[in-house]
From TrEMBL:
<feature type="binding site">
    <location>
        <position position="61"/>
    </location>
    <ligand>
        <name>substrate</name>
    </ligand>
</feature>
<keyword id="KW-0479">Metal-binding</keyword>
<keyword id="KW-0547">Nucleotide-binding</keyword>
<feature type="binding site">
    <location>
        <position position="66"/>
    </location>
    <ligand>
        <name>substrate</name>
    </ligand>
</feature>
<dbReference type="Pfam" id="PF01812">
    <property type="entry name" value="5-FTHF_cyc-lig"/>
</dbReference>
<dbReference type="GO" id="GO:0030272">
    <property type="term" value="F:5-formyltetrahydrofolate cyclo-ligase activity"/>
</dbReference>
<feature type="binding site">
    <location>
        <begin position="15"/>
        <end position="19"/>
    </location>
    <ligand>
        <name>ATP</name>
    </ligand>
</feature>
<comment type="similarity">
    <text>Belongs to the 5-formyltetrahydrofolate cyclo-ligase family.</text>
</comment>
<feature type="binding site">
    <location>
        <begin position="147"/>
        <end position="155"/>
    </location>
    <ligand>
        <name>ATP</name>
    </ligand>
</feature>
<dbReference type="GO" id="GO:0035999">
    <property type="term" value="P:tetrahydrofolate interconversion"/>
</dbReference>
<dbReference type="GO" id="GO:0046872">
    <property type="term" value="F:metal ion binding"/>
</dbReference>
<protein>
    <recommendedName>
        <fullName>5-formyltetrahydrofolate cyclo-ligase</fullName>
        <ecNumber>6.3.3.2</ecNumber>
    </recommendedName>
</protein>
<dbReference type="GO" id="GO:0005524">
    <property type="term" value="F:ATP binding"/>
</dbReference>
<keyword id="KW-0067">ATP-binding</keyword>
<keyword id="KW-0460">Magnesium</keyword>
<dbReference type="InterPro" id="IPR024185">
    <property type="entry name" value="FTHF_cligase-like_sf"/>
</dbReference>
<dbReference type="InterPro" id="IPR002698">
    <property type="entry name" value="FTHF_cligase"/>
</dbReference>
Length: 222
């Protein structure tokens, strides 16, 4: 037991230090850098949504220097097929994630931690089990698909509910796809990343990049 506790503390410190470095790098990006990165990330994700035609997907509202820009929900919502639904996260008091449908920028409200959340009916944490495509935030992702979040554990809980056939994609700035991030047993891998320079890149547990996905669970035909 002491060995496990020591190892967990080392991992916690390593995660904290990596977060500090990554956030500092993001703060150094100029407004022009962020805008250019957002445009490229949005274009890649829109192309993915149009190709996969998901019935239901999730995203979030990027804030500050997060890649994708604050318009990300709008551009993804517009790319969905007729009847497609975009869900955005709602942070619960226990730091788990609830979800609500996105119906335009006027339906968002300011929430804790600088986030903006939808004001529509809450659909419950388990609705994520019925999602085809998930766009989720992270500070970095490694080549095994393990992501480094901001430390609250909200997305680790949410990703634990996602079915295996769903596609999970993280928008990143260039340089944030890294060889390895410190990992703990509860950390959940993602399927792919999108970066401004390299576009969509899928990942596997062996740490090797593979070809882009052509389907994501339950999708509409062309």
């Amino acid at each position: 037991m002491p060995e496990f506790s020591d190892e967990a503390e080392v991992t916690h410190v390593a995660k904290r230090d990596m977060r500090v470095a990554l956030l500092a790098h993001r703060r150094r990006l100029t407004a022009a850098d962020r805008a250019e990165a957002a445009a490229r990330v949005q274009a890649e994700l829109v192309a993915l949504v149009r190709r996969l035609r998901p019935i239901r997907m999730t995203a979030y509202v990027p804030v500050g220097s997060e890649p994708g820009g604050p318009e990300l929900p709008d551009v993804l919502h517009a790319a969905l097929p007729p009847g497609g639904e975009l869900l955005l996260p709602v942070l619960r008091p226990d730091l788990d994630l609830d979800w609500a449908g996105y119906a335009g920028p006027d339906t968002l409200t300011a929430a804790g931690r600088g986030m903006r959340e939808p004001t529509g009916p809450r659909l419950g944490p388990s609705v994520i089990t019925d999602v085809d495509l998930l766009v989720v935030p992270a500070l970095a992702v490694d080549r095994r698909g393990l992501r480094l979040g901001r430390g609250g554990g909200s997305y680790d809980r949410a990703l634990a509910r996602v079915r295996e056939s769903a596609l999970t994609v993280v928008p990143l700035h260039d340089g944030e796809l890294v060889p390895a991030v410190p990992a703990e047993p509860h950390d959940r891998p993602v399927s792919a990343v999108v970066t401004p320079a390299d576009g969509l890149r899928t990942l596997d547990a062996a740490g090797q990049g593979v070809a882009p996905h052509t389907s994501a669970g339950r999708t509409r035909g062309a």
